[in-house]
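Suppose a colleague, Dr. K., hands you the sequence of a protein chain of 391 amino acids and asks what its three-dimensional shape might be. Before reaching for any lab equipment, you can write down a predicted structure in token form. Begin with the sequence itself:
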Amino acid sequence: MVQRAVELIDEADEYQPLPPPEPRPPLAARPRKLSVTQIETWLRDPYAIYARHILGLKPLDELDADPGRAELGTIIHRALDEFVRCFPRELTADAESDLLRIGREQFGPFLSRPGAWAFWWPRFERIARWLVAEERAHRSSIAESLSECEGHWTLSSPGGPFTITAKADRIDRLTDGGLLVVDYKTGAVPSTKTVQAGFAPQLPLEGAILRNGGFSGVGGSAAALEYWRLSGGRPAGERRPIAEGDPGALIDRVIARVKALIERFDDPSTPYLAVPSPLWAPRFFRLPASRTDCGERGRRMMSFDDPDRAQREAAGPRASVWVAASAGTGKTRVLIDRLLWLMLEGTDPSRILCLTFTRAAAAEMANRLNEELAKWATPRGRERSRKHCRS
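The predicted structure, expressed as tokens, is then:
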């Protein structure tokens, strides 16, 4: 009886989850100008557009954070932009050294950080080696390379003119008169299925802007649209065309899809839902745990607080593991679970050493660990933690 009374202390009198938000701002408040990358966000997660462009909310960067994948991508884009602007037609005999010099200038003070010097600079060196070899192999078919080309295209819609903007990483004038549009990717490249379904519209929309004369100094139909994956790994780079042959049909399909999207949101009754289609949710997004949305099995798999099988295996203290994953995929969760598991098995906390590259990362781990330990202060919390680590 006493035990039951103690357990009731932790239970809420009533739990009534709120429904997902469905904001319906007036037409005058809805954006009439978006970039091609924001169009992709709009397709996948309309609520993110509402938060950023209507509420004016922006995520804050961590203090004293080492450069991550996004920052690395920005630095590589700047370096390649400078390289192409310096050598739009012919390369020098020592083009790789030229690119590395430009890279050092763009990395600048970041190279004083241990994480950047140890991980990101070697990747850039491999990217430079691959890129220069690729350039030498294909420069004979290129009349001129244009970098960071800004463009826009205004469409008519029921709610008034709507402008799509873009900054193409690279547009090559080919010697046969065609045009090649290139998008650099330092992370994952959208799958063919995603591109063909219209949920990765960046390159097709850049092709549409090019076709409609929206880029200054260059215009015409794109002969090819390509992703250049620049990971710096093995292999360091890779060219991936997004369509076989003429990409015109793909561009037409994406234009039709985007026009329908604009028209749908020109109706003030259309809500900005958070991830209306789970199949095409943004990368690293975790769906809310809901039996009605995805069933009990899906709820277990997608809940952030319940690690999947691979995470549980990595969290086990008897396993020696190396975890490599992108931001937001649960690496810190695995580390916290590993620490908790060690302590549950009787390890003295003073004998556990955790190393991070930044104070911000250390503080984040400490805060999460303290939050979890606070839950252990109740009998039910301790039991939940034991079950969590045994699962």
